[in-house]
Specification:
The chain is α+β, with helices and mostly antiparallel strands. Helices cover about 30% and strands about 20% of the residues. The protein has an 8-stranded mixed β-sheet, sandwiched between helices. β7 and β8 form a beta hairpin. α1 packs parallel to α3. It is globular. The two termini are about 25 Å apart. The chain binds zinc ion. Zinc ion binds next to loops.
């Protein structure tokens, strides 16, 4: 919604180069020539104008920690609601849903996916460090939530990252709606 969310894909590993969405652009109307190329410090390297998404440093850190080929980030009603509802538990467990099998390496609906929740911050270097710590603590996680902010997921390819983010959004909405119907 609005200009929220951001997208990146690795174009080169050594030295690291990411294609990164610009700041303040409606992602539904993003054109290929608006994508920026950034380095491991989130600095633009392909031109001397433009501004990458504020959260570029977070994308870089996820790529470095997970070896991801693409990182996607969404702000949605349900990822905001559940990131707040389960914040005191440090994350939310998702299990028993067939859709879990769309996450890389998951073979059965009986899988238990722990989606960590990290406190939001406007201090991007500090937030990147919190994310790194969380990724180290949960090596099997396919994504994480930033509290009252949004969802991050990634994949070996852009297609896999898109699949992961869509599956998480589906699962979070399903859980949120179920809680609502039950009146919890
Ligand atoms: Zn965001």
């Amino acid at each position: 919604m609005g200009t929220s969310g951001n997208l990146s894909a690795v174009v080169q590993r050594e030295p690291l180069r990411l294609a990164m969405s610009p700041s303040g652009v409606d992602k539904g109307e993003l054109m290929p020539d608006q994508m920026l190329t950034i380095d491991e410090n989130a600095r633009i390297v392909n031109q001397d104008f433009g501004k990458p998404s504020d959260e570029s440093l977070l994308h870089v850190r996820i790529v470095q920690k997970r070896g991801a080929g693409a990182v996607l980030h969404t702000h949605s009603v349900w990822n905001n609601v559940l990131s707040d509802l389960y914040a005191s538990e440090g994350g939310v467990t998702i299990s028993g849903y067939e859709m879990l099998k769309g996450l890389q390496g998951v073979r059965t609906h009986e899988h238990s996916e722990w989606l960590p929740i990290i406190d939001n911050s406007q201090d991007m270097p500090a937030l990147a460090d919190s994310i790194e710590k969380t990724l180290d603590e949960h090596p099997g996680a396919h994504g994480f939530l930033l509290r009252r902010h949004g969802l991050y997921s990634w994949g070996e390819t852009l297609a896999q990252a898109k699949r992961h983010i869509e599956i998480f959004e589906f699962l979070l909405e399903t859980m949120g709606r179920a809680l609502h119907i039950r009146g919890i």
